[in-house]
Design goal:
Layout: H1 10-16, H2 30-34, H3 42-57, H4 65-93, H5 96-103, H6 112-128, H7 135-166, H8 180-195, H9 201-236, H10 251-265, H11 273-277, H12 279-315, E1 318-319, E2 325-326, H13 339-356, H14 359-389
Antiparallel strand pairs: 1-2
Helix pairs in contact: 3-4, 3-6, 3-13, 3-14, 4-6, 6-7, 6-8, 7-8, 7-9, 8-9, 8-10, 9-10, 10-12, 10-13, 12-13, 13-14
Protein name: Malic acid transport protein
InterPro entries: Mae1, SLAC1/Mae1/Ssu1/TehA, Voltage-dep_anion_channel_sf
Transmembrane segments: 68-88, 108-130, 136-165, 177-196, 202-226, 247-268, 288-312, 333-354, 360-378
């Protein structure tokens, strides 16, 4: 999202930029459109995988829900494969875009979406694969966790160095998508909270320590970025209407911290290592984790409420002429920013409700799940329509513009 760009109607932008191809005036083949297949498309796969995880975590299960989650997980694997092939095809047919995708704003912010998609795949394997297979898949998941931890840390560090050396980012114009550069590392803690339950005690403790450490890195860097995002909004306003859904991205900073800390604390191996010598420490950490999550919940809700209230004025179409509705905002890939961070917020709410044994909180989490699933269906339909109508994957329309 370009927070420094004032909102302007779509028709006015087309008049101001006549060199940009318009879908109504030109037809493009697949190869030239692949040039504009950016990393931001992986926000679709990270969100689709997150929805599959959410369906397995929602507190009020019913027959067929896990099957629906499994179908969405398999769909996400197909999409991730297709999107990866499309990105490789882009770099093959348009090799000049390979370097540019890592040095051009705002596209470079979205490179982390690929690794966030991989994180959701690992968690879905745990949720939908491990309960129905032998111990071998538990080992596979553990290996994937450590591989992801190493790769995500190396990638995130390298990406920040690239930004420092090759890109000039004005702090007062920074985009919320910048959080994606560190979220890929932060999700190591969420993976740990997801897989730790089925791991043997010796392996469990190591995974918990690594997960909490990575979560600390992600949360600390989020706190560094947060003032710049809020400062950019204060200075430049909310930006273009179709980019405003990206304002939900910061919600994930505190949301996934809650998920990681509470999830890991719930499965501390009390019979092993440090906790065998200090058995009371496990209970203390569970209490601390719960109340830390409660401490962060309203902050997370405040970030969610800010993004929601900013988007509401442009969500509903205006009446123009006689019985004619005109949309106030078009689709952009930033719309997927509504899903992924709020999945973390919903799961965190579920964990708090389960720990407090509060049926009211659990029903709130269930309602959040239903709403997120509905928005995911809307995003899928709009994404497909945007491809067919040239709203995305089109010259001048994407994050490489």
């Amino acid at each position: 999202m370009d927070a420094d760009t004032p909102e302007e109607p779509e028709m006015e932008r087309d008049k101001e930029h006549p060199t940009e191809a318009s879908p109504t005036s030109q037809r493009l083949g697949l190869r030239p459109r692949l040039e504009h297949f950016t990393w931001a498309n992986f926000t679709c796969t990270q969100s689709t995988g997150a929805i599959a995880i959410l369906l397995s975590e929602t507190p009020h299960q019913f027959p067929g829900l896990r099957t629906a989650g499994l179908v969405i997980f398999l769909l996400n694997l197909v999409l991730l494969t297709l999107f990866s092939l499309a990105m490789l095809a882009r770099f093959h047919f348009h090799p000049q875009t390979a370097r540019g995708s890592f040095t051009h704003l705002p596209e470079l912010f979205f490179v982390g979406s690929f690794w966030l998609s991989i994180a959701t795949v690992i968690m879905c394997i745990q949720k939908y694969g491990v309960p129905h297979t032998g111990p071998w898949l538990v080992i596979v998941v553990r290996v994937l966790f450590w591989a992801y931890a190493a790769v995500s840390l190396l990638f995130s560090s390298t990406l920040f160095v690239v930004v420092f050396l090759k890109v000039t980012v004005e702090p007062q114009k920074i985009s919320p998508a910048a959080f994606l550069m560190i979220y890929c590392t932060m999700l190591t803690g969420t993976i740990a909270a997801t897989i730790v339950e089925t791991q043997p005690p010796a392996q469990r403790l190591a995974i918990i320590v690594a997960g909490i450490s990575y979560q600390g890195l992600g949360w600390t860097m989020s706190l560094v970025l947060m003032p710049h995002i809020l400062g950019s909004l204060l200075r430049n306003g909310a930006g273009r209407a179709n980019q405003r859904p990206g304002l939900f991205i910061p919600v994930g900073s505190a949301a996934f911290t809650m998920v990681s800390v509470v999830g890991c604390a719930n499965y501390i191996p009390v019979e092993y290592g440090y906790f065998a010598a200090h058995p009371e420490a496990a209970e203390v950490l569970r209490v601390v984790a719960l109340w830390m999550a409660i401490f962060l919940w309203v902050f997370t809700f405040w970030l969610f409420l800010l993004a929601l209230l900013v988007n509401l004025p442009t969500t509903f179409p205006r009446i123009q002429g006689r019985r004619r509705l005109q949309a106030r905002m078009g689709f952009s890939l930033s719309w997927w920013g509504i899903i992924f961070p709020n999945v973390g917020f919903t799961i965190a709410t579920t964990y708090i409700g389960q720990s407090l044994e509060s049926e009211a909180i659990l029903w709130v989490a269930t309602a959040m799940t239903v709403l997120l699933f509905a928005v995911w269906l809307l995003d899928v339909c709009l994404h497909v329509k945007a491809i067919l109508t040239g709203q995305i994957m089109w010259p001048g329309k994407d994050e490489d513009a």
